[in-house]
Amino acid sequence: MLRIGTAAACRCLAAVLILAALGCAKPVSIKDIVDNPRAYADRTVTIEGEVVGMLSLVVVKYFTLNDGTGSINVITERPLPKKGERLRVTGKVNEMFSLGTETLLVLVEEKEKSGAESERPREPAKTR
User: Fold this and answer.
1) Which pairing describes strands 86-99 and 123-124: parallel, antiparallel, or unpaired?
2) How far apart are the C-alpha atoms of 5 and 9, rounded to whole Å?
3) Cα–Cα nearest to 75, from 32, 111, 102, 24
4) What does the alpha-carbon distance between residue 119 and residue 95 come to, in Å, rounded to a whole number?
């Protein structure tokens, strides 16, 4: 039977957790979401891109994010970002409606956490 020390086990566990966290934060391309809606429906994903438009109505606020591969509308309860701003957004992919060959997919941005973290702004996208 193989025996390892507590310190080695802790280092191993820490490495696994760091790798898992890095894997979760990798943005998904909007093209992948649009081309494979069934694979992403009701899944939480992270996307990254430039804000190319926004709309605020009484019942809904959203902005359009373009990552160079495609665009998707992001429904939010947070203040709308500025056009041209680069953002990384996490949320759940939802199919709003489908009519014939046309499907409207949106990303519903995760709600802000209560407490001190609610003051934290959206994460800006990394510049290339």
Assistant:
1) antiparallel
2) 6
3) 111
4) 30
At residue 35, what is the residue type? Answer: D
Which residues does 88 contact at the CB level (< 8 Å), separation at least 6? Answer: 27, 46, 47, 48, 122, 123, 124, 125, 126
Cβ(113)–Cβ(124) below 8 Å: no
CA atoms within 13 A on the CB side of 84: 0
Q: Which domains does the chain have, with CATH numbers?
A: 28-124 (2.40.50.140)
The whole-chain average pLDDT of the chain stands at: 81
pLDDT in tens, 32-91: 999 999 999 999 999 999 999 999 998 999 999 999 999 999 999 999 999 999 999 999
